[in-house]
């Protein structure tokens, strides 16, 4: 960890705990800051707050006091990424010019290792995992962090200068950055997402675009040549540009040509040798190839991963085959685009299991991808909307259930040999489940109980 003096005795508020807030508070305390933590969960029920209190950190729980900034003379706020900027304390901070960051900014400030930053509307986890596995196979001793599950500042605290941190980044995390600068960065794609948080698509895009903002010519900006909005966001970056495309042959970058994956003038591997399912994953693979090539990764390491890596948990995760029915867990598909991509990965008849949190949208954009859907098992708040979409397409087999466990059984009852049973909800999980991981785990357990 780099030795930095800028936080010595600085009054800093950590707003919101969970994993990132707990890690940020501990780190700031080590850096000598005068740390205050504010969390809505009452102290007597808040194990993280109790842990920080034992370290001598000032903890305020159960509410967001309006006078907290003044009373503690706060000069900086580190906020939990999920807390919206409409929070009263954050509105006060904006009025008073108090900087607000997320913990990935702290991770950058203390990290001795370079950071490879990966963001986008879809494919982040798959691409992050591919990059990590390729670099690991090549002996480069990478670390993995960020939105993929490991708090970035915890990883950065232990990282050495000869390592590299592969970091998945959400728009929530990136919006709270100031000087954050990866040595290589990619925006995979941009589609409507998290508009309830950001307010507008432009605000969402600008948050994603911050990943390119501080790059210098010594850094790599990896760009999806097929996505006009990503290209627009990359226009002003000072980073050296590297491209990838599934649609066109490139003079410089990763692309598909003659049914093979190429990088510049090197043919790396035939597409049919790649085991990761789904046409959409070719985009993630090309982005990963471009990123690891900026680190000098060998073609042998890339090929080894692409011929063995079959996907990440909850993202088109193959669960099992039962009486010639194949079951897939795609619980991480929390929006229409992700479910569209999953459906397009299969030529077989599909029984689609979908539904979840109602964010006010309809599902008309899902229709073009539903040509192979022969039945719907719906659940959650959006069940009526999804059923309406299916009826409009002439899909007659529709069954509403209470949860994903029931959905697994109902789908098996309806299925025939050769069918794909696909949990791909097209919605967030929060109407019924704490996380998409919990939703997916419950589905997987239910599938394994089927006989």
TrEMBL record:
Domain of life where this protein originates: Bacteria
Residue positions binding ATP: 120-126
Intracellular or extracellular location(s): Cytoplasm
Pfam families: Mur_ligase_C, Mur_ligase_M, MurD-like_N
EC number from the UniProt entry: 6.3.2.9
Catalyzed chemical reaction(s): UDP-N-acetyl-alpha-D-muramoyl-L-alanine + D-glutamate + ATP = UDP-N-acetyl-alpha-D-muramoyl-L-alanyl-D-glutamate + ADP + phosphate + H(+)
Top enzyme class: ligase
Domain Mur ligase central intervals: 118-291
Domain Mur ligase C-terminal span(s) in chain numbering: 314-427
Gene Ontology terms for molecular function: UDP-N-acetylmuramoylalanine-D-glutamate ligase activity
Pathway it works in: Cell wall biogenesis; peptidoglycan biosynthesis
Family matches, as NCBIfam families: murD
Homology family: Belongs to the MurCDEF family.
Name assigned to this protein: UDP-N-acetylmuramoylalanine--D-glutamate ligase
Gene behind this protein: murD
